[in-house]
Amino acid sequence: MKHNFIDQYSDLDSLIHRLDPRVKFISILAFIIVVVSTPIRNWLSMVTYFCLIVACLVLSRLPPVYVLKRSLAIFPFVLVIAVFIPFFKPGEVAGSYNLWLGRISITYDGLFILANIASKAWLCILALILLSGTTKFTFLLKGLRQLRVPEVILMIISFMYRYIFLVVDEAMRMRQGRDSRNFGGTRWHQLRTIGHMVGTLFIRSYERGERIYAAMVARGFDGEVRSLNELRFAPADACFSFVFGFVLIYSFVTFGLV
Q1: How high is the pLDDT of residue 182?
Q2: Rounded CA gap, 247 and 88, in Å?
Q3: Which of 92, 73, 30 is nearest to 244 (CA)?
Q4: 177 and 75 within one domain
Q5: How many angstroms separate the CA atoms of 91 and 191, rounded?
Q6: 3-state secondary structure 84-146
Q7: Claim to verify: residue 47 and residue 122 sit in the same structural domain
Q8: From CA 23, how far away is CA 31, in angstroms rounded?
Q9: Are residues 183 and 80 in the same domain?
């Protein structure tokens, strides 16, 4: 299996790739905050945000198909959360339909809220794809560490990223073993088998974690991760921060508060 599915294109050479991870993280965080804070009725500001993030994606040279596929993955979660809002939000009725349970109505205000949630979620996921696709995960963690993010959180994320591949490989081997034994029978038997597999995978992962921790302590691990790569704030980082921040603030003040 591929072990770089998160930062798959982080080895490309572009202006965005060469930026300091701290600059990219702060810029993307500011972008998400501004997008969420902007009223959806100010559509000019949303268009400006979209153009800004698309320009950064073009500069990053990330494959468009890769970006589109990963960004569309957010919509099932959005629909699960907000799909019923148009039916229950009071307001002017956009349409009514007769079902066997009764009559349901869709309101314009509900559709507007659904569009608000979907568009903002899509912009935010595009920004996160830009961050993860142009930054090596180890460099991003080092940047977060220098930004004073709690060490415990970074340690959990680091080990999760480092060993999730082993857990997935273990699950794939268990599934292969299950299929080779003619996995079938009743639905209840299949559910019991899957439940046993999940429990076994949890126990194996827990025991592996204990062995890894014991090995690290035996080698003098004191809770601090050290790296030879030093992050430097270059003039290009300052220029990007200024331009990106100026466009965000100008769009929010000019269009978002009108």
Answers
A1: 65
A2: 37
A3: 30
A4: no
A5: 45
A6: CHHHHCCCCEEEEEEECCEEEEEEHHHHHHHHHHHHHHHHHHHHHHHHHHHCCHHHHHHHHHH
A7: yes
A8: 12
A9: no
Asked whether residue 111 falls in the same domain as residue 187, the answer is: no
User: 169 and 47, same structural domain?
Assistant: no
User: Structural domain of residue 197, as residue ranges?
Assistant: 150-226
Q: State the Cα–Cα distance between residues 256 and 44, nearest whole angstrom.
A: 8
pLDDT digits (tens, 9 = 90+) for 223-258: 666 666 777 888 888 999 999 989 888 888 876 554
Query: Is the pTM here over 0.90, yes or no?
Result: no
Query: In angstroms, rounded to a whole number, what is the distance separating the alpha carbons of residues 136 and 200?
Result: 32
Same domain, 94 and 177: no
Contacts of 61 (CB under 8 A, 6+ apart): 12, 14
Kindly report, residue by residue over 103-158, the tens digit of the pLDDT: 677 777 777 788 888 888 899 999 999 998 888 888 888 888 888 888 888 888 88
